[in-house]
Input
Amino acid sequence: MALKLRRGTEANRTSITPAEGEIIYVTDTKKLYVGDGSTPGGVLQGGSGGGSLTGITDNATVSVLTLGDATISIDADLSITGQEIVGDGDINISGDITASGAGTGIITANSLVGDLVGNVTGNVIGDVAGNLIGNSEGYHTGDMTGSVFADDSAIIVDSVNSSIHVERYKSVSNNYNFGNDNEASSSRILVNSVNNFGALEIQRESELDLTGDTAINYGMIRFSRNDFNGLKETGIIVGRENALLFSSSSTGSFADPTDYFAFKEKKFGIGKITPTESLDVVGNAIVSGNLTAGAFTLIGSNIDTSDSSAITITPAVTMSSDLVVENDVRVSNIVYAESFVSNSTGTPQITAATNLDLTAGNAVQITSSVLRLASFTTTERNALAGQNGDIIYNTTDNKFQGYENGAWANLI
Output
């Protein structure tokens, strides 16, 4: 008479907790379980629960090992020589995996989770999630192929389009807003320094000798916007053999050299990409503060203000050549001169609102012309506020007359 055990499907087994010593046979998986009174579904027999595997002992050589749901515990090192471990499930190892030997050890996996410590010589193809730390000098050798993504899956290195994208960076202050009240935020590329030195280099490479090639751009940094209106450049920085050129444009055109300012061989040009002086400016310049210079040389002949108002010169001014004035000369103090010469075709005049005094250390002399006195009629003479010493010519009496002792009198 046959001995029949308790049986059922895998779903039936997992729904009960068999008593200690109770044997259960699963009809759809053909496996045998023994209850321990606490494990749901019982304990699998034939390689699980601490049981041994037939034919496998210490130092045993096995060509093919096929297991179902099994756990293998090894209390010593497992050495596999000349063979591969292949599986479609997970391999969980709490210790180290060392690939070595006379040749090159190769670890092939669709996914490698955890730290990879040691040198990698060759290509890394696929996704790398985590930190890539170089050698003690901070350098990496070998090639990395593929795109790089940030923690939020935003692309940083786009291997398909050969471009680099940077994430949005929010600054801690408004120092870069220049009047914008919004919180400062931008994108940035951060170059960490090594030994207190950081560098971002744009290098032109060629098999030709580039020495003296001053008219060709070696590198460029472009500033642009890409919005509803499309892509448009708004500014560029250009590097050449001996110059840096800077330009901005609202139209996206940078063909006009006068749109640039340049730094070339210790010379700074504004509106000129080939400056010939330390400061070479094409166009107007506005200086809101002081302008200090050893000398001024004017290419043109005009000095003017924007509203043609007066120019104030505080210290004394020495003219080493003639001063030509095409309008009035107004002096609020004393005019010193060795002589006064009028080359006017008309009659020069000296006019004063009150008395006009002529003072000389010895005498006031008229050396090459007559002295012509003012002429008045008797009526006009009587209207004058005469003072003793005044002299006129009376056209009514045809007489020279002088004011003496409080009255007008004929001189001859």
In short: The chain has two helices and 21 strands. The chain has a mean pLDDT of 79. The radius of gyration is 52 Å. The first helix runs from residue 10 to 14.
